[in-house]
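<context>
A single protein, sequence plus fold
<sample>
Here is the protein in question:
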Amino acid sequence: MTPLDNLRRFNANQRNGAICVMYGRQKPRGTQEAVTFATGMVRDHPGQETMESTATGLKRFDAPIVGPNAKALKYDILTALQVLGAHGTHPEKRLAPRLCFLITARYNWPSRSFSVSVRELARMWNISERSVIRDMVQMRKLGWITVVVPAAKGRVAHHRIEIATVLKASMPYWDAVGSDFSARMSGVSVQDQPEGKGGSNVVPLRMDDHELPEDNGTGWQVAALRLMQQDPIAYRNWFKALTALHLESGVLTLQTSTAYAARYIENHHYTQILAAIVATNSAVRDVKFEGPPANVPKSEHSSYANQSEGLT
C-alpha cells in the first residue's frame, strides 16, 4: 500500500467518524491509544472534552488543558505559582518557584505529568540530590504532586501535578496580582463584573438592595460583602440565602435553603465563594455546602426553591 493510499484511507475514516489511521492499520475507534495519537491528549472517558469546555473555577484544571483558552490558562497557572512563591509561607516560598521552573521546562501538558530524574532536578534547581528528594517528599505531603508510575530499575518515576490543589494554596494571594486575575481565576466572567471593574456597561445594583449576614466570627459577612461587590446578580440569586453554620478544622460549612441550591452552588460557584472567604479569612482552607435539615417543613423554604427553579 502506497503512502497516498494511506492518506486516502485516513481522510475517508475521518469523514466516517473514525479516530485515526497509523501505518496503514486502522486503530479501533474509542481506544485511548488512538485518541492520544490523534489529539495529543489522554482522554479518561468519552465525555471529557465536553466537561472541559463547561467547567468553571478550579474544576477547569481537573482535566487536560486544551482548547482556545489553553495558553491563557497556562500563563495564569504560572502566575499563581509565582505569587505563591512571593507571598506564601516559608516552604511555599521555596517550593513554588521550583515547581514553576519544572512546569516551564519539563511538564507534559497533555498527559498532566512529568518524568525527571533526581540528578536532573538537582542540576536544574542547583541543589543537592538529597535536597531534591526532601522537596519532592514535601510536595507530595502538601498534595501538589502524586506518583502515577512508581520508579523501578532503569525507569524514572512519573509524577502528576495536582494543579487545582496548587491553585487553592495560592488563592489567598490572588488579589496581589490584581482584581482581574482574582475574578478570572474564580470563574467570574468579565460581563458579570460591575461597571468599572471589568468592562460591563450594566448598572450595578445598590449595596442597600441586599442584606448582609450577621457577623458570627467565621468571616462570612466580609466574604459576602466581597461577593456582593464582585457579582451582585449571583449574590442576589444564590449567595444571599447562605448561612454560615460553623468553622471547624479550616472547613467553613454554609447552609442553603434547598438541597438543589447546595448542589448548584457547589458545581457552579465553589471556587468563587472559596476565593472570597480565603481572601478575608486565611484560616479557611475549604468550604462545603449543606441543604436544610430533614425535619424542616417545605413551606419554610418553598419560596427559594421556586426562585431556583425559575433560574434554570
Notes: The chain is about 50% helix and 10% strand. Confidence is low (pLDDT under 50) at residues 14-54, 194-205, 301-312. The CA atoms of residues 13 and 305 lie 49 Å apart.
